[in-house]
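Work package 3, deliverable 3.1, input record:
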Amino acid sequence: MSATASRDAAIALAIVVVFGSVAMLVAGVSPLDGFAALLIGALGSSQEIAETLVATTSLLFPALGVTLAFRAGLFNIGAEGQLIAGGLVAGLLGERLAGPAIVAIPLLLAAGALGGGVWGALAGLLRARFAANEVIATLMLNIIAALLAGYLIGGHETTPLPPSSWLPALIPDTRLTIALLLALALAFVLRWVLRATVIGYELRAAGDAPETARRAGIDLAKTAFWTMAASGAFAGLGGATIVTGVLHRFNLALSPGYGFIAIAVALVGELDPLLVTVAAFVFGILQNGAIGMQAAANVPRDVVTAIEGAIILVLSGRRAFKR
Amino acid sequence: MESRGPVGLVHQHFELVDRLTVWENVLLGREPRRGWRIDVAAARAQVNELAARHGLAVDPDALVETLPIGIKQRVELLRELEREPAILLLDEPTAVLAPSEIASFFATIVALARRGTAIMVVTHKLAEVIAYASTVSVMRAGKIVAQMQTAQTSVQALAQAMVGGELPPLAQRAATPNAAEPALRARRLSARSEADAIEEFDLEIAPGEIVGIAGVEGNGQTALADALAGTIPHDGTLELRGSRGTIPQDRQREGLVLDWTIAENVLLGRQRSPAFHKGPQIDRGASVAFAQEIIEQFDVRPPRPQAPMRGLSGGNQQKVVVGRALAGEPAFVLAYQPTRGIDVGAAALVQSRLIEARNAGSAILLVSFELDELFALADRIVVLFRGRIAGTFAREGFDRGRIGALMAGGS
Amino acid sequence: MIARAAFCLTSALVACCVVLGGCGRSTSQGKVKVGMVTDVGGLGDRSFNDSAYAGLVACKSRARAQIQVLQSKSAADYQPNLTVLATERFAEIFAIGFLMNKDLSEVARRFGDRSFAIVDAVVDAPNVESVTFKEEDGSFLAGALAALVTKTKSVAFLGGMDIPLLRKFEAGFAAGTREIDPTTKVLVKYVGSFDDVAAGKELTGVLYDQGADIVYAAAGKAGLGAIEEAKQRAGRYVIGVDSNQDGLAPGKVLTSMVKRVDNAVLRVCRDAVAGKRPSGHIVLGLAQDGVGLTDFRYTKIAIGEANIARIARIRNAIVDGKIVPPSTREELERFKPVPAP
């Protein structure tokens, strides 16, 4: 497990270096300049570091959700839809809600988690009730979430949330909020749940050896349902923190595909919440560094998108084969 | 290594494509063709002919994943025979066969050898070695420690060579206690597994009794075991007084999580028991102590609770499974082929522990395809044929000939 | 093991990059840097962003500006994109699209010494130039043309989303038909999306079935669906929007109501290169060549010389202020056609 997993990280790193260099050469930029611009763009100033951590946070929530689902043997590729569902609920509630921060913020975050949780639970229900393949179910629900959001918003975005509903900033004049601390805390909680609790034990058994788990009295259908619900709640919470902390409104384009990149983050992080946190930071560097790279070295952002796509493809392909 | 002609290998854990039919597996890569299409009729005929020639009956159109394990082995064997190998390697070939099947299986093998095929069999069944092989090599810890002509040796000598000393004697059977109430009572039990089915099955097992199930694989053993384990639905009534321990058919798929440690594995089925958790949290100390207990009782190697399961030999894996099933003096123990594919030392230990559990008052259902094992352990033998009870024998009346006949469908 | 080796290798490489790259960075001397941030539609949308980019490229060749485009993958990118350009000391930074309204306000506040411009929205800040268009002007012409050409006495408006910006198109179009013939029916539908091509096609079919023979499709990418539907129907037309879409289905696209985002960007960019500070809010209508119809390259015969001349006269009336096209539904209620010019 651990051996193959660290090989995953090595593969991901190799893809970044090799694939990235080739893509930059094709784009007519020296890879050295390109990578330098990427790193400076991501870590060059406190402002940049803050933005990198914003991306890290937005990736970490869905990545933790994906981690949870994968550990239970559920290939949840619906984090994107769950994130949108959570952000949508938080946005719709947020534009109607005016109350003190101490009430409004927990309420909106909980609403986001609930929205994402319901969206994940839908896929869980399809699997538990009708043995529907969760890959296809979650993929379809991604599309439905996006369309539903467009329908309910009736435009590109909701009206802005009142400032009392904004997440407090960690560093003034940046978009880095306490959402980062929340995500880090959740990573530790998730690690504890998976390693030390009865629920985590049963969930891992269901993922690692389903037939053994069934014979040990573990209800696989029930486990699948609640795991998907919890996995969706993580992603939904992430959507809610983007709405309350980054954009201060719900926007149809609130995610550049965090839910999909989260799959790569979870796999590179060996499905261990703490390593996933590190991986989220690395992908946060890629994500935010891409902006600086485009500005300073004229490397199209799509290079980074392509790198991320290649990582997801190779790592999930490996995983699918191991099944 | 040199060989004149192809080498055939029949694995203990089969290498078949589950989603293909029997003929597709047997002829995989060598299908008869008509133009660019597979000639299905010819393929079927070819497989039927091959099966008849070697006395290995199979349905060419059956889907492999639906077949019982014994039939899968025939498919595997047919696939190798089809290539007419110069050397045929067989890994534990009779582990899953009924006694009557074993005789005809060896008849097939011996006939092959007469026709010039070199046969090498890896097995733990010493009686078969003496009966059928011409020479025998004993391996221990990766080295050949003895080589002899079977005519000049005995089962006892082989066993000693294998364990490097005397085998421990089986545990002594205590007198059967007279229990007022059976620990397990099944009435008109009907159930269907993927492999087979049972119909209107009546069975009672008293505390301190081992009931052996004899029968050729595929006659309802899987359905019976799964129904009693509660993993498939059933009709009829099933009463169980007290706790249940199970030794499943396929230890790797149904009994263990290979990626986990011994300590994590022994907890399976007990994860919700108050002894093993404090609040939401698993009591690691308790699970390690429990694993340590099993390791000591069953001499599990390596003797470390944190050792990953995957690194253990089949015998040691089985010891963990059996230790877990027998711990805490369960009222009922379901043991399905508990010594399948493990070395004689481990097998003797497992058998002794089963008898000790019986002596301590557990009611045990033992499914085995080896009559020797049933004769050694059971207080009563129930013969299963086509999902129904074909006959019941008390220990005093065990009769190899009659039991064998009933297993084959005679009366 | 492999992981550790790869990690060391990459760390070394990364260190090299920082050192070498840090030294190697340079900018072309003397040129004024002008940047632009696209909305999530990005370059290649054959519409709004592409049009803005064309303006920027024109500025590069005519005013010798050094240009830079940053694309946005999500709404969360708007602020960092704008911030990066501000930090890199760009003289003028364009935010393309009303979606960036709020983010630009924030960045403009933080970088008070930089100049910004936003298209299609108004940001009230001293260092922001807001550029909006009188879509109602061009739409009015489109409506007049539709009323002149229709044979069924029924035309239709297909909007992307029911938002104030799109209602300017709707009101102008409806008023334009009234200018020609108050009895012409105007059907109105909204897709609910700017990128659902299939829905755009289906709704256009519905409008045709209800009797309209010309559909004014102001629906972004969804409008491409309207053009697809028109291709399959005899005697039915569409009117395109934003960029010149006449060539997408020659003969079937009666004309396009173009928004000259390129002209707007070029104009602001040139001012910036010349050192001018933002002047507040620019509104570009027919008079400023900010909006207008195309040259009817493929549809001259279908429309007829007389009608083309009539449209030209109405255009002049608007430029002269004799006709004031309405920009909201309320203004449309009160709109009285001016006697035919």
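The radius of gyration of chain A is 19 Å.
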